[in-house]
Amino acid sequence: MLSPNFIEIDQIDFEIFLCILTILPCRKVRLPIAPVTLDFKGPGLFGPETGLGMPTCLLCVCMGGSVYCDDTSLEQIPPLPKDTTHFYGRFNKIQHVKNTDFINLNKLKTIDLTGNQISEMDEDAFRLLPQLQELLLADNNLQALPELPNTMRHIDARNNRLLSSGVHPEGFKDMSQLEFLYLSNNKLDYIPTPLPESLRALHLQNNNIQHLHEGTFCNRHNRNYIRRNLEDIRLDGNPLDINLFAQAYICLQRLPVGGN
């Protein structure tokens, strides 16, 4: 067993290794004979977290408030420094996002978990993040979305298995800053309404949407209403004939790309 004065490092690029040496208060460094075993059960990936969040930053790349853990074979969300603003955990093996994974990360604005194996998310996994704006969950195995904060600007859940029953009723209604909503290549039966006025792009191609109604995009109580921001609507690849629902588009400045 190595003494506390040694740190074992496995397959770290020499330049990164030198960089680490300028940060860690190590007296000696010995290259390992056997690879390091990561322990996700403890408070940090390489032991207790420090004030600098160094345990996670040995495995991932930490730059300012951004933490990059792409393609590192993660099976769980790692402990993140408290000042993290952007987290990228793309192309890993994460299956479950727990309600404790992002707890107390009050500066977190972006979470990108594209290309994992996520099939389950706890209901409060994201809801209590006060500054979250961008949530990217494309290319996973999700059947449902948890409740999200009203601060969202960009939601990308393409290429999942989302069901209409797995999307909260009126779940996007109060997201007054939401601009981009990408839900293509799922199993949705209808458009999740009402949609916020801020929305600029809505991608729903390759779902199972068959019907629209007068209030899907427009205000059925105000014939003079014009939805000015929403100019990018994709409905192609659905069993839907958009020509049968002309009243649904009367308020739009640009018609949807549509239908079967």
UniProtKB/TrEMBL annotation:
Residues 56-86 form the LRRNT domain. Its main location: secreted. It holds the Pfam family LRR_1. GO terms for biological process: articular cartilage development; bone development. Gene3D superfamilies: Ribonuclease Inhibitor. GO terms for cellular component: extracellular matrix; extracellular space. Keywords: Disulfide bond, Extracellular matrix, Glycoprotein, Leucine-rich repeat, Repeat, Secreted, Signal. It is found in: Secreted, Extracellular space, Extracellular matrix. InterPro entries: Leu-rich_rpt (IPR001611), Leu-rich_rpt_typical-subtyp (IPR003591), LRR_dom_sf (IPR032675), LRRNT (IPR000372), Mimecan/Epiphycan/Opticin (IPR043547). It comes from the Eukaryota. Belongs to the small leucine-rich proteoglycan (SLRP) family. SLRP class III subfamily. This is Opticin. The gene is optc.
